[in-house]
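Per your request, structure below.
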């Protein structure tokens, strides 16, 4: 089995949206209760062991098939009945599928460690002249901005020397290093929070790690392959694997998916294997579905709606929705009036099991997530 995920406690309307968006299948309009979805992708046709369950099951869970993919819809009671039947028939494949659980994960960045219930706020430090949000405002005042982020409670600082906004101009490796290395050096001498560096260039990552960076935040879906993963592992650093379709220069030209959730999930799963094989420690690997990176507004909202599916990759989920242009498309809010929408999206992402939040407004997000945690208790 190449891929499987179980999405629990989903509203009937949300399940209907998923099916209509990704599958040429009907939906039982009579279903109004919360449902479970199981979607699986196989290298070949549906296994005989599952076919026998499909046609022989006494439960009312319905199947929809499309080529080599299948989707299963059912209530908690229906899946419980199927689990009992699978145990009786010793169907190990189906049992392994039904036993999957959505769980958040322990994590580590530098000396900072988090339990599966802990979150972290990552403050953005752009030292670029063309950032989509601050437009280089902190390029010459980076130190003052960092002190403000730390004072507001940032758990991690993410320093970037090359803009990754859509259609951003390319920056030379030497210029990128000149921008970030002095900032990293100052941070290591003056603040105690871990330092992440936003780069996908191996040469920049190596220089940053040598200067003391604790994490590489790679937006390229591991474009550097085994060499990048091995480099991170050699410094015992943390690594965030982010999904992107294309590059910052091309990603928003015509992003296309047949099943955005399934395709992003599978891409991350494939690259995670490279990270693990290279020796990056489990608790130091993070995943990011890449909101706004090679996705339309519909893709972004869809991923946020089903974000908890990514917990089945057994890695902490990092999310970056802060001040994104999708809020312009939703409610026509310009770059200076998106804080409330950003905040709402971050709380919703937390409820969908995100653990790390990459943000511009640290104090606001920290307060909101803290309140959500208290509410959930």
């Amino acid at each position: 089995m190449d891929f499987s995920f179980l999405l629990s406690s989903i509203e009937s309307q949300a399940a209907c949206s998923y099916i209509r968006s990704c599958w040429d299948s009907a939906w039982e309009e009579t279903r109004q209760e919360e449902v479970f979805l199981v979607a699986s992708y196989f290298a070949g046709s549906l296994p005989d062991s599952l076919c026998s369950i499909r046609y022989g099951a006494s439960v009312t869970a319905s199947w929809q098939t499309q080529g080599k993919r299948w989707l299963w819809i059912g209530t908690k009671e229906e899946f419980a009945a199927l689990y009992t039947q699978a145990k009786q028939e010793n169907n190990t494949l189906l049992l392994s599928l039904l036993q999957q659980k959505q769980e958040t994960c322990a994590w580590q960045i530098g000396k900072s460690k988090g339990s599966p219930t802990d979150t972290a706020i990552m403050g953005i430090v752009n030292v670029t002249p063309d950032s989509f949000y601050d437009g280089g405002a902190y390029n010459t005042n980076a130190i003052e901005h960092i002190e403000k982020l730390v004072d507001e409670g940032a758990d991690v600082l993410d320093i970037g020397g090359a803009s990754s906004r859509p259609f951003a101009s390319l920056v030379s490796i030497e210029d990128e290093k000149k921008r970030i290395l002095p900032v990293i050096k100052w941070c290591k001498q003056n603040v105690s929070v871990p330092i992440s560096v936003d780069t996908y260039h191996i040469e920049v990552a190596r220089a940053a790690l040598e200067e003391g960076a604790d994490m590489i935040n790679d937006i390229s879906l591991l474009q550097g392959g085994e060499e990048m993963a091995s480099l991170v592992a050699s410094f015992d650093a943390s690594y965030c694997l982010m999904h992107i379709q294309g590059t910052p220069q091309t990603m928003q030209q015509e992003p296309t998916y047949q099943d955005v959730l399934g395709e992003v999930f599978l891409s991350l799963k494939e690259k995670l294997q490279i990270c693990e094989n290279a020796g990056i420690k489990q608790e130091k690997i993070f995943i990011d579905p890449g909101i706004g990176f090679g996705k339309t507004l519909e893709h972004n909202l869809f991923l946020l709606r089903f974000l908890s599916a990514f917990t089945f990759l057994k890695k902490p989920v990092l999310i970056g929705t802060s001040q994104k242009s999708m809020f312009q498309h939703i409610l026509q809010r310009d770059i200076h009036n998106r804080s409330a929408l950003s905040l709402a999206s971050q709380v919703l992402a937390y409820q969908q099991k995100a653990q790390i939040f990459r943000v511009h407004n640290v104090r606001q997000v920290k307060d909101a997530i803290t309140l959500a945690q208290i509410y959930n208790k």
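Confidence is low (pLDDT under 50) at residues 1-5, 54-68, 130-139.

Regards,
D.
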